[in-house]
UniProtKB/TrEMBL annotation, chain A:
GO CC terms of this entry: glutamate-cysteine ligase complex
Protein name as annotated: GCS light chain
GO biological process: glutathione biosynthetic process
Protein keywords: Glutathione biosynthesis, Oxidoreductase
Domain NADP-dependent oxidoreductase, chain residue ranges per copy: 106-252
Organism ancestry: Eukaryota, Fungi, Dikarya, Ascomycota, Pezizomycotina
Pathway: Sulfur metabolism; glutathione biosynthesis; glutathione from L-cysteine and L-glutamate: step 1/2
One Pfam family here: Aldo_ket_red
Biased composition (Polar residues): 53-63
Oxidoreductase in keyword set: yes
Ranges where the record places region Disordered: 52-80
Automatic annotation (TrEMBL), chain B:
Pathway recorded for this protein: Sulfur metabolism; glutathione biosynthesis; glutathione from L-cysteine and L-glutamate: step 1/2
One of the GO BP terms on file: glutathione biosynthetic process
Organism for this UniProt entry: Trichocladium antarcticum
This enzyme's EC code(s): 6.3.2.2
Biased composition (Low complexity): 518-534, 568-579
One protein family per Pfam: GCS
Protein name: Glutamate--cysteine ligase
Amino acid sequence: MAKLILSTGNIVSGGPSIIRKPGAYRSNLELTNSLRSNFLAAQQDFAAAELRSNGTATPTSNGDAGGPDLDAETGGRPSASVWTAEENGVLYVPRIDWPEEGLQEEPAQYNITVKLFFLPTAPVSKRPQYAGEALDLVLKELGAPAVDLFIVSFPGMSFEGDCEWEADKQNSAQGNDEEEIAAWSAVEELHRRGLAKKLGLAEFGSEKLGRFLQKVQVRPTVDQINLKNCCNVPPPLAKLTKEQGIELLVHSDCTDILPKGTLRDLLGPGLGGAGILADPETGRGGLHGDLSPQWVVKYTAVVRDRGVIENKGYFAGAELVEG
Amino acid sequence: MGLLALGTALDWPEAKEQAHLVRSWGIKQLLAIWSKAKGKERDAMLWGDEVEYLVVTYSKDDPKVLLSLRQADILDALENDKALCGTEKCTPVLPDGSSYQAHQAPPVFHPEFGRFMLEATPGKPWGIEFRELLEVEPNMKLRRYIAKDHMLPNEYPITLTTFPQLGSPGVFTDPFYPVSGSRLRSQFVPDEIANPHIRFPTLAANIRSRRGRKVQVNVPVFRDEKTPWPWRDPTVNYDLHQWPEDDDVRNGAAPDNFIHMDAMAFGMGSCCLQITFQAKNLTEGRQMYDQLSPLGPILLALTAATPIYKGFLADTDVRWNQISKAVDDRTPEELGEKNDRWRIPKSRYASNSTYISEDSRLRPEYLDQDLVIDEEIKQQLLDGGMDDRLATHFAHLFIRDPIVIFAEDLQELDLNKTDHFENIQSTNWQHMRFKPPPADNSIGWRVEFRPMEIQMTDFENAAFTVFIVLVTRVILSFNLNFYIPIAKVDENMETAHARDAVLTRRFHFRRNLFPATRARSSRGSNSGASTPVTSRPPTPTGPVDDEHRPMTVNEIINGTAYARSTSAAASASASATTTPGHPAERGQDHDDDGGEYFPGLIPLVESYLDAINIDVATRCRLATYLDLIRRRASGELWTAARWIRHFVATHPEYRQDSVVSERVSRDLVEAVIQVGEREAAGEGFAGMGERLALGSLLGGR
């Protein structure tokens, strides 16, 4: 069994992957596009660096994707060992040169928000571990001692339906209260250790939130919701959050942010894949086994008083069970 | 009136003698502030908006609306009303039921050039907390309410860019004054049209003196079905012999097919919407200045609101060139009519001529190749430690003479003031202004965005204000690159004047706002405290002309995908109301350029908002603002200019001859006042009548 950590790096000045496409109001395109573009950039960068040190450049190489270090086994891509890195049994895709300084100013100048997506493909029992891992990666990336807001998104929850009242009702039966409360206690622990100053939830309707609040020790200060027509907050939810002093924030993420098939495509041998996984037909070139996504974390660092996003990106954790 | 110190203003011949001294002291003051402030860091993002009003007299039974010249009395009333920030009046309950927030500082009112104008700013600058963005509109309403509250019952502050009857024969001011005074020597407006503070008449008179004749503000007349052609401005009097300048019209100042105007008031009497941003440091200020500059003409076209001059429909939709001509103090030599030290291609009021950032993305080809600068001044600035690019900028601004000089200020140079520097700086009216900190260095480097036209309602004014604020955050966060050659920005500024430019014209715009390849190891944009170090500076390659292409405003604002889906609707609506005229101008918006993708400013703003923590109510309100701008850009909604044209065209008294009669003007102002009253009361516009077509202007509000 092997563990993979995927990362996007800072996507904020990265171009097209940050732009919301019309009609794609709620999608994971930002994640998948920025992963893909980071893989490609890493393949080019590290392969080019390798090339310079080896001096094996072919004179016709023009620096485009797949120019140097062609490897027939990986479909013309530079081999994975060049641009990924394995440390302590974890494969980093791509490899990460941890920055000496994450943010340009001292951390107190920033408002750092983290949103952790628990995925339906991962075992519930490991959620405490995932929360710790994900937050560690973000803190390391940003060079910050703590985040300001840590939002948790549980699988299987949404506001669906045309009428927002209806959405709020349906929401009541979604997810799994017990599992969510169990995971929350791990998140509370991160808060107690001072790593997350405030906690938040996503997609909790009025009834679920009401039940949740009765059972937790550290209360969420934020509930992030996605509404088709954002001006119609279900009145019970508006009332409850107002009474409880919980801020209702907007988001446009989808809950199932990294389905298994999407991950396979991203890392697979096909067109647009990174060539980390073996070709299932030929069995050649890469890792074998069943890959499942475990969690995704999104982080954003905004300069206080200036409203400038300095750093934004994602990490994703996945597990490969060799078949 | 505190800003406007009194003194003995020099008439032109004496002022000219002192011009060199003022420039040289101005440069010394600039260098003093430069050395104090160049290292300023981490100033917060603070910003402010300025709204300008015309003050009109109107009553239901009066067949005339007039410009009220009681500016000084109104300002006195505002100034002397201690209760403005006292207890009772400080928290007035506004007509829409909302009350004035106690934590808000009371708004500030300022005089303007026109004696019929008023300017209002928020009492303290805004920050970038998103809830503050929502306070802009209520604050604008509050300003209007307080202004009205200090006027006579029949006086109203309205936000039209120009007064439709300004300069037409007969009575258009209250009180009435005869034309042809000694300062303006205008045959259309009295000297009393200008703010009586000595600064303003001196400004107008010295511009005229320096120029050697009156200013010539000629705007092409709109040719309607029954407009006589060629059209000769029927209001021009060729038989005046009171002033030497009365010869101007006999010497061809008023060509056929143009509405002829001859005084500064026709330009500087226009109202606009300006926004000033404080940058975190010098570098960021210079970056914002450059990046906002190519957006100027786009926002000018999008806010177009000026289709009437002197009682006639013009063939242009915006105020810009008229102001430019109204303050054009260039001598015949500088205009290139005679040989001189230099020919100056633009008026003091014009689109930007410089980029000022030391950004590695700024290619030398973008700069104005024929920029006129004062080499001696540039050398002084370089010697004082300023870098070449900024020294060039100021050496360009300082080719101008100071127009208004007070004798008292020439006694000794005070390096703890910036008055001489500001004398030149603030009479260079470009579409962006780069503002050094004041002499006490108490606030930061600032950038002013100046091209937008004022809109009829505070909702619209707030929408454009908030949009530009968000665009600056997007530029800095995503490190966007809008650079195109300055000559193309100039061209766009001209293009923005066309009738319905939003629908019918294309503007040069940069195709790719992002670096060509992703710099993987680049850490963040440049929001940090220090000047950013880009780990892999992009190497510009390829011809500059391939970097930009002509785009519609719809494409620029909404992106190519949205533009494609709406262009059919927009062109249908364009042809439905486009009056006959110049068929060549139509049909230009039909083809798209082989489907090249451009993201659009609004999708970029939405991507930014998606990444920020925003509460539901705030996001909803911001969405209504973005929606207005989206639909204005796509043509689903009309610009103010289009709405005004529609009002005139459908008025029973309009004769399809380009003449906007007193009656039509009165009814237009009445409609504007009624819309304002509805807005103030928090009521919608339903039931105001089909003919008003407010739904086409504001959407379903």
